[in-house]
Amino acid sequence: MEIYIKNEKLPLLSIIVPVYNVQDYLEECCNSIINQKYLNIEILLIDDGSTDNSGEICDYFGEKYSNIRVFHRENEGLAATRNFGIAQAQGQYLGFVDSDDWIYENMYSDMMKIVLEKNAQIVCCNFDLEIDKRIIKRGKNGIDIYNKNEAIVNLMYPQFYQFYAPNKIFKKELFQNVEFPIGKHFEDIITIYKVFLKSEKVYFIWQSGYVYRQRKDSITNAIFNSKSAEVLDAIGFVMNDSKRRFPNNINDIMVGYIRYYISFLDKAIIGNSKELRIYQMTIQDVIKKYKKAIIINKKLSFARKIQFLVCGYFAKLYELLAKIKNFLN
C-alpha cells in the first residue's frame, strides 16, 4: 500500500465518488483525484452495485492507497449513494466527483485556498466539457464573491457554476438536515439550492477545475421524456421559493427559469413529445409577461434574448429552428 502523504494542519476534505458501471472511465477519475495538490484528502469510492468490473477497480485503488476507503452496496442510485457518502465522510469539507468524469490537479488546492483565507462555506469552480475525447474550454481568470441572493440567481445561468454538485466544495455542516432526494432525476437542483440558502456567501473561481465527460447515454443529453420532465418541477420549486425569499431579484430569477424551461422545450420539440403544446403554451405566457426583463437582463447575450422572444411570440418558427439546429448538429 502507498501511504498517502498528508498535511494534518490542513482541514480534511472528503471526496465522495459514487460508482456504477463505469469501468472504462473509473481509473482516470481516481488517478485525477489521487494526484491532487491539496494534501489532506480522503477519497470515498462507493460501489453502487456495479455489474461490470467497477467494484474490482475500486478495491484495487483501496488496497493501493491509504487515503481511499471503499464501500460496496446494493444498487440504490446516485442520490442514496451520495447521502451514504456524506454520512461516512470524516472531513470538515465535502467534494463530489462523478466517476465518469475527471479533475485537474489543482482543483481542490485552489478552492481550499479560499476556504483557508476566507473561512468560506461554499467554493465553486468553473468546468470544461469533454465530448468525444475533445476538451471544450470554459474557464477564464478571476475569482468572484456573491451574497446569498445573487449566488442563487447565478445558479440558473449557464455561464456560472450551475446546480451541479461536483464542481463545488461545501462545509459539511451545511448538509445537516439536507439530503439528495432518492428516486429523482436531476437530484442536484433542489439539494444545491437548499445548501446555498444556508450559506451567506459563495465564492466562484472562473478557472476550470472539473471536466464533465458528455456521454451519449447521459440523462442530461437524452431526448425529452416523462422522467426528464422532473427537472421542470425542481426548477419550478426553486423559482417559486426564491421569488418569495428574494423579491428584489424576481426579474433575474424568472429569466433564469425561462432559460432552463427553453432548454427542455428544445428536447420536447426534437423528441416530438405528446406534451409539447403544454410546454410551449406555458413558456410563451411567461416570456410575454417578462418580456421587458428579458430585454434588459445583463446575464443574457443578445442572441439568447432573440431566442427567448422568438420562442415566446413565434412558436412555429421556433419549433422549425430547433429542428434545423438539431439536424445540423
UniProtKB/TrEMBL annotation:
Pfam families: Glycos_transf_2. Gene3D superfamilies: Spore Coat Polysaccharide Biosynthesis Protein SpsA, Chain A. SUPFAM superfamilies: Nucleotide-diphospho-sugar transferases. This is Glycosyltransferase 2-like domain-containing protein. Residues 14-175 form the Glycosyltransferase 2-like domain. Keywords: Glycosyltransferase, Plasmid, Transferase. GO terms for molecular function: glycosyltransferase activity. PANTHER family: GLYCOSYLTRANSFERASE, GLYCOSYLTRANSFERASE EPSH-RELATED.
